[in-house]
Every structure is written in C-alpha cells, then in structure tokens.
Amino acid sequence: MTTRTVDTTQELAAFLRTRRERLDPHDFGLPSRRQARRTPGLRREEVAELAGVSTDYIVRLEQGRGLRPSVNVVEALAGALRLAPDERSYFFNLAQQRPRNSDKPATTAAPTLARLVADLSPLPAMLMNHRYDILAWNGEMARLLLDFDTLPPSRHNAMWLCLMHPDIRERYVDRERIVREGIAHLRSAWAAHPEDQVLTDLITEFTARDEQFARLWAERDIAVNGRGRKVMRHPDVGVIAVQFEVLMPLQDPDQRLVIYRAADDESQSVLDRLCAR
C-alpha cells in the first residue's frame, strides 16, 4: 500500500469544514433561528462574520479552490474556530504561513521543568527563555558559574552576565566566540519576538555599554546554537571544558533546558571536585 503526499489545499479545506462543524452555536451566543440547522456546527456565514471575511471566501476555502490565506486571515479564522494550540500550528502549516509570536515570553519556570532541572544533578543544568533570562538552575550550575541568588532578578540573564559581570566576563577562555554566538542567537530571538520590549531594552543597554557587543551586533550574524563547547577558568578549581546541549520542551517552547557535561576526563574530575565542595 502506498501513501500519497499531502494535498495541502484539500486538507486545509477538510480541516476547516470539520472544525466549523464541531462548534456549538450556543457557545457563541448566536440567536436561535426559526429554520432548523440541517448540519452540525456553525454556518459558513457565521464563521465569516466572526473572522471578518466574506462568506464567499469561506466557501472557496472549504471547496479547496487553491486559495492561500494571508497571516491575518489565518489568525482570524483560528480565533473564530477556537482552535487549540496544536490545531492552530497545524492550520498555519497547511496555509504555508508562519504564525505571529503572540504569546508572552516566559518569565517563570514551568514547575515540572524546574523539578527536572533539579533532578538532572549532578549535571549542571538551567532553564532559560528566548532572551537568555535564567528562570531556574540547580546547585551544580550555581557552583560552576555563580550563586544567582546574590543578584537581583533583573540580572538573572546569561548575556548580561557574560558582558557585564566582572567575574563571569573573564570566565570564558574563548570569550570572543562565546559572545559572537550569543549575539547571533539574540538577533534571531529579537526578530522572532518583535513585540518583546524587554528584549529590545536589553539590546539597547548592551549596545550602549559594551563596545564588543555593539561591533558584533552590527555584523548581523544569525544562528541558533543547540549544542557546542565552552572552556572556562573557574577561580577555585581551574580550567573546565564542557559540552552543552539546549533542549526545547514541546509544551513550553519559550523555555530552553540547558545541560552541561564535562568534555573530557580531566574536566570531569575537576567538575566532580567542584560539585563536592
């Protein structure tokens, strides 16, 4: 048996019909009509009114006439049809559009992820959002970097620490590369979250206060680093090389789980000694 490739136009049409038909008119406060409804769910004209488009447009979409709705129309229809987050993503994929990032950035750690960070001991681990705010960490990460509780919450930011903190500034052996990679990630996050004023303010602060940041930001490098290597000079135990991995939970895509592992046997010995202190 062979499976045909997806015909996105026809699948989008069928998806819209099924989602319209499953809706209960009473949930929308629609007035009762003397004429009984012959099909379940909302009528096409009702969906059109809720979404702010013409009934003819809904008809053509549901008949698979090859229309490609704009981002604004997809957003409006997703709201009118009360799509769940996973359904909304599916709808945007079928329409070959990219959803706007309308969700507010994570400012606190999801409880299950905070527990996971603690459970990952003895591996150093922390949880960040897209702007590098550090939301949760375990004891091993605090020993490797610093006791984050000694800083005000507004300074729980990995990029700020790398650029501004007097101890962390000198912690990385290859600081130029670390800063360059961080800026390339930050620029990607900035483009994906244009409404995030806190992120914009951070970038403005970094540009004004750090010449290296201003120079590298102007180069417009773009990259999202999901794994890599860092070499650090720890003031108590010496040089430690770590491999890092960044994971994004499906249920909390704005939160990033960062896990460090020793890159070699010597670094593992140094890390064990540090965590045992």
Secondary-structure blueprint of this entry?
Blueprint: H1 8-21, H2 44-51, H3 55-62, H4 71-80, H5 85-94, H6 111-119, E1 125-128, E2 134-137, H7 139-144, H8 158-164, H9 175-192, H10 197-209, H11 211-217, E3 227-234, E4 238-247, E5 256-262, H12 265-275
Antiparallel strand pairs: 1-2, 1-5, 3-4, 4-5
Helix pairs in contact: 2-3, 2-4, 9-11, 10-11
Describe the structure.
The structure is a single chain. The chain is of the alpha+beta class. The chain folds into two domains: 8-94, 434 Repressor (Amino-terminal Domain); 111-275, Beta-Lactamase (2-Layer Sandwich), CATH 3.30.450. The chain is 44% helix and 12% strand. It contains twelve helices and five strands. Strands 2-1-5-4-3 form a five-stranded antiparallel sheet. The chain starts with 7 loop residues before the first helix and ends with a helix. The model has no long low-confidence stretch (mean pLDDT 89).
> What structural class do the secondary elements suggest?
alpha+beta
* Number of beta strands: 5
C-alpha Rg, in Å?
25 Å
Show unreliable segments: none
Please give the CATH architecture of the largest domain.
Answer: 2-Layer Sandwich
- The share of residues in helices is 40-55%
Domain HTH cro/C1-type: 34-88
GO molecular function: DNA binding
Pfam families: HTH_31 (PF13560), MLTR_LBD (PF17765)
Protein name: Helix-turn-helix domain-containing protein
